[in-house]
Amino acid sequence: MQTDTTRITVWVQFSAASLLEKMIRQHRAEEHEYVETLIEQGLKKREARIQAAALRPERWPSIGVVVADALDLRLTETDLAGPWAPLTAAEAARLSLSGSWPGPWTGQHLVQRNYSLPTPLVNWLRTVSWRKSQDALQALEDRGLVGRRVLTLNEAEQRDRLHLAAQLYPPGRIVREALERYGPIPAKPTADRR
Fold first, then answer.
1. Residue ranges of the domains in the chain?
2. Which pLDDT belongs to residue 186?
3. What is the reported pTM?
Protein backbone atom coordinates (compact mmCIF):
# COMPACT_ATOMS: atom_id res chain seq x y z
CA MET A 1 0.00 0.00 0.00
CA GLN A 2 1.51 3.30 -1.13
CA THR A 3 1.30 6.22 1.30
CA ASP A 4 0.80 9.74 0.01
CA THR A 5 4.08 11.62 0.01
CA THR A 6 5.05 15.26 0.23
CA ARG A 7 8.28 16.58 -1.25
CA ILE A 8 10.20 18.80 1.15
CA THR A 9 13.38 20.76 0.66
CA VAL A 10 15.85 20.91 3.53
CA TRP A 11 19.47 21.83 4.11
CA VAL A 12 21.46 18.82 5.35
CA GLN A 13 25.11 18.20 6.13
CA PHE A 14 27.20 17.54 3.05
CA SER A 15 28.58 14.41 4.72
CA ALA A 16 25.08 12.98 5.38
CA ALA A 17 23.93 13.75 1.83
CA SER A 18 27.06 12.07 0.46
CA LEU A 19 26.53 8.97 2.62
CA LEU A 20 22.91 8.70 1.51
CA GLU A 21 23.86 9.02 -2.15
CA LYS A 22 26.65 6.45 -1.73
CA MET A 23 24.19 4.10 -0.01
CA ILE A 24 21.76 4.38 -2.93
CA ARG A 25 24.50 3.64 -5.47
CA GLN A 26 25.45 0.60 -3.39
CA HIS A 27 21.80 -0.51 -3.21
CA ARG A 28 21.44 -0.28 -6.98
CA ALA A 29 24.61 -2.31 -7.52
CA GLU A 30 23.53 -4.96 -4.99
CA GLU A 31 20.07 -5.21 -6.54
CA HIS A 32 21.58 -5.55 -10.02
CA GLU A 33 23.92 -8.26 -8.76
CA TYR A 34 20.99 -10.06 -7.10
CA VAL A 35 18.99 -10.00 -10.35
CA GLU A 36 21.97 -11.28 -12.32
CA THR A 37 22.46 -14.13 -9.82
CA LEU A 38 18.81 -15.15 -10.14
CA ILE A 39 19.11 -15.11 -13.94
CA GLU A 40 22.23 -17.29 -13.73
CA GLN A 41 20.20 -19.68 -11.56
CA GLY A 42 17.67 -20.04 -14.38
CA LEU A 43 15.01 -17.40 -13.70
CA LYS A 44 13.79 -15.25 -16.54
CA LYS A 45 14.88 -11.62 -16.27
CA ARG A 46 11.33 -10.41 -15.63
CA GLU A 47 10.82 -12.90 -12.77
CA ALA A 48 14.20 -12.00 -11.28
CA ARG A 49 13.32 -8.31 -11.36
CA ILE A 50 9.94 -8.99 -9.75
CA GLN A 51 11.64 -10.87 -6.91
CA ALA A 52 14.15 -8.06 -6.44
CA ALA A 53 11.37 -5.47 -6.41
CA ALA A 54 9.62 -7.39 -3.64
CA LEU A 55 12.80 -7.24 -1.52
CA ARG A 56 13.61 -3.61 -2.29
CA PRO A 57 11.70 -1.86 0.53
CA GLU A 58 13.46 -3.82 3.27
CA ARG A 59 16.76 -4.79 1.69
CA TRP A 60 17.49 -1.73 -0.48
CA PRO A 61 15.32 1.13 0.84
CA SER A 62 15.14 4.44 -0.99
CA ILE A 63 16.65 7.66 0.38
CA GLY A 64 13.15 8.81 1.31
CA VAL A 65 12.58 5.69 3.40
CA VAL A 66 15.93 6.05 5.19
CA VAL A 67 15.30 9.76 5.91
CA ALA A 68 11.71 9.06 7.03
CA ASP A 69 12.83 6.27 9.38
CA ALA A 70 15.52 8.50 10.92
CA LEU A 71 13.09 11.42 11.21
CA ASP A 72 10.43 9.27 12.82
CA LEU A 73 12.94 8.21 15.50
CA ARG A 74 14.08 11.79 16.11
CA LEU A 75 10.51 13.03 16.49
CA THR A 76 9.91 10.50 19.28
CA GLU A 77 12.75 11.79 21.45
CA THR A 78 11.55 13.50 24.63
CA ASP A 79 12.51 17.05 23.58
CA LEU A 80 10.30 16.85 20.46
CA ALA A 81 7.65 14.28 21.40
CA GLY A 82 5.04 16.78 22.55
CA PRO A 83 2.10 16.67 23.00
CA TRP A 84 1.61 19.42 20.44
CA ALA A 85 -1.60 21.13 19.37
CA PRO A 86 -2.42 20.68 15.68
CA LEU A 87 -1.46 23.50 13.35
CA THR A 88 -4.08 26.02 12.41
CA ALA A 89 -4.75 26.49 8.70
CA ALA A 90 -2.75 29.76 8.74
CA GLU A 91 0.21 28.12 10.48
CA ALA A 92 0.19 25.19 8.07
CA ALA A 93 0.10 27.57 5.09
CA ARG A 94 3.02 29.56 6.48
CA LEU A 95 5.09 26.43 7.07
CA SER A 96 4.44 25.06 3.59
CA LEU A 97 6.30 28.02 2.07
CA SER A 98 9.95 27.59 1.32
CA GLY A 99 12.38 29.95 2.95
CA SER A 100 14.98 30.02 5.63
CA TRP A 101 14.52 30.51 9.33
CA PRO A 102 16.83 32.82 11.25
CA GLY A 103 19.63 30.88 12.84
CA PRO A 104 23.25 30.90 13.88
CA TRP A 105 26.03 29.64 11.64
CA THR A 106 26.68 26.08 12.73
CA GLY A 107 30.01 25.68 11.00
CA GLN A 108 28.64 22.76 9.01
CA HIS A 109 28.82 22.58 5.22
CA LEU A 110 25.18 22.25 4.19
CA VAL A 111 23.64 21.25 0.87
CA GLN A 112 20.05 21.52 -0.23
CA ARG A 113 18.21 18.24 -0.79
CA ASN A 114 14.65 17.28 -1.69
CA TYR A 115 13.06 14.26 -0.07
CA SER A 116 9.69 12.65 -0.70
CA LEU A 117 8.40 11.66 2.72
CA PRO A 118 5.05 10.34 3.93
CA THR A 119 2.62 13.26 4.13
CA PRO A 120 1.57 12.53 7.73
CA LEU A 121 5.26 12.58 8.76
CA VAL A 122 5.85 15.92 6.98
CA ASN A 123 2.76 17.37 8.65
CA TRP A 124 3.97 16.15 12.05
CA LEU A 125 7.48 17.53 11.37
CA ARG A 126 5.99 20.94 10.58
CA THR A 127 3.76 20.82 13.66
CA VAL A 128 6.64 19.94 15.98
CA SER A 129 8.88 22.51 14.32
CA TRP A 130 6.35 25.29 14.71
CA ARG A 131 5.22 24.46 18.24
CA LYS A 132 8.79 24.02 19.50
CA SER A 133 9.89 27.30 17.87
CA GLN A 134 6.89 29.61 18.10
CA ASP A 135 7.84 31.48 21.28
CA ALA A 136 11.40 32.21 20.15
CA LEU A 137 10.24 33.11 16.64
CA GLN A 138 7.59 35.47 18.04
CA ALA A 139 10.22 37.12 20.26
CA LEU A 140 12.52 37.60 17.25
CA GLU A 141 9.71 39.18 15.27
CA ASP A 142 8.46 41.33 18.19
CA ARG A 143 11.97 42.70 18.81
CA GLY A 144 12.60 43.37 15.13
CA LEU A 145 15.49 40.92 14.97
CA VAL A 146 14.54 39.37 11.61
CA GLY A 147 14.31 40.64 8.07
CA ARG A 148 16.42 43.38 6.57
CA ARG A 149 16.98 45.04 9.92
CA VAL A 150 19.51 42.32 10.84
CA LEU A 151 22.08 44.19 8.78
CA THR A 152 21.96 47.13 11.22
CA LEU A 153 21.74 45.37 14.59
CA ASN A 154 24.04 46.55 17.37
CA GLU A 155 26.10 44.02 19.35
CA ALA A 156 23.50 43.52 22.10
CA GLU A 157 20.76 42.93 19.51
CA GLN A 158 23.01 40.49 17.62
CA ARG A 159 23.62 38.51 20.83
CA ASP A 160 19.89 38.54 21.59
CA ARG A 161 19.12 37.38 18.04
CA LEU A 162 21.67 34.53 18.23
CA HIS A 163 20.33 33.44 21.62
CA LEU A 164 16.73 33.32 20.34
CA ALA A 165 17.69 31.77 16.99
CA ALA A 166 19.45 28.92 18.79
CA GLN A 167 16.05 28.02 20.30
CA LEU A 168 14.45 27.54 16.88
CA TYR A 169 13.76 24.08 15.50
CA PRO A 170 13.12 24.56 11.79
CA PRO A 171 12.34 21.40 9.83
CA GLY A 172 15.87 21.34 8.39
CA ARG A 173 17.45 21.29 11.85
CA ILE A 174 15.26 18.38 12.92
CA VAL A 175 16.08 16.45 9.73
CA ARG A 176 19.82 17.14 10.20
CA GLU A 177 19.66 15.90 13.79
CA ALA A 178 17.71 12.82 12.65
CA LEU A 179 20.35 11.96 10.05
CA GLU A 180 23.19 12.57 12.51
CA ARG A 181 21.63 10.22 15.04
CA TYR A 182 19.82 7.64 12.93
CA GLY A 183 20.98 8.03 9.34
CA PRO A 184 22.83 5.46 7.22
CA ILE A 185 25.78 5.62 9.60
CA PRO A 186 24.65 7.25 12.86
CA ALA A 187 27.25 9.40 14.57
CA LYS A 188 26.41 8.20 18.07
CA PRO A 189 23.61 6.39 19.85
CA THR A 190 21.25 8.56 21.85
CA ALA A 191 19.77 7.71 25.22
CA ASP A 192 17.19 10.50 24.99
CA ARG A 193 14.42 8.22 23.73
CA ARG A 194 11.04 8.03 25.37
1. 5-14+62-182
2. 56
3. 0.84
